[in-house]
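Take a sample.
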Amino acid sequence: MKQLFEIETDRPEVLDEFRKLARKYKLSFREWKLAKSENPSPSGDPFFDNPEVVKEILRRKKEMESGDIESVKLSEEAIKKLFDVI
């Protein structure tokens, strides 16, 4: 059974060593250049590819950290109504 082994690095010396190793053992290998992603999502969610979305998230984060957000306290009745709980 064939298996795939994937390596991701930006260090040329490491890539050279892996190329040498692959050649030594007559292994096939492929290389791809990876573009640096500005997407902050660990899963690469395309929602975060939109710079306006990221800008809004950062704006709100800054508000939270500075305490410039007005807090809203809901009554138990308002919570039940909001979530349609009987």
